[in-house]
Fold this protein.
Amino acid sequence: MSDWYILDENKQPVWLGPELLPAVDRWSKFRKDFENNCRVGDSHLRGGVHVSTVFLGLDHNYGDNYGDRSAPGYQPILFETMIFGGVHNDYQTRYATWMEAEVGHDKAVQLALESFRWDRHIVAEAKRIYRRIRLEVWMKKFHWKRKLHEFKRTASLKWTWFKLWATYHWRDLWRNK
């Protein structure tokens, strides 16, 4: 059985019938003018992010009633939105009608644009962290130099005190008392 569809002039799906070969033949003729017949939306955003919504032509409704067009409420899933690149790379949603696909394309574009806003926040936070790390490294360097200076000062004071003590007690040191 064939699950192939084309769109009529009102962008409504039309089932191509149960025979596979005639259905594929009609579908391939329909797809020759892809931009006019199958492209719902195509948005190229900055950073190499691309949002695309297309008519698939093949039913992707793999639910409980797969292929059973007589089931109540059955709708073939014929449209797909994908995001390529960016934070939401390989984001994918599917729809049953052209109108749902247009709305879904707009939502996907907004989602991709929202990720750019988050990217700005992430970059700002990364800059703050970098500045803080640079400050901490500088402070550690400064702190290390200060500690070294204190050590030298205290070491020289200790040596001075030892010399004073030794000159006073030198006889006791030599006598082994």
Summary: The chain has a mean pLDDT of 79. Residues 5-117 form one domain.
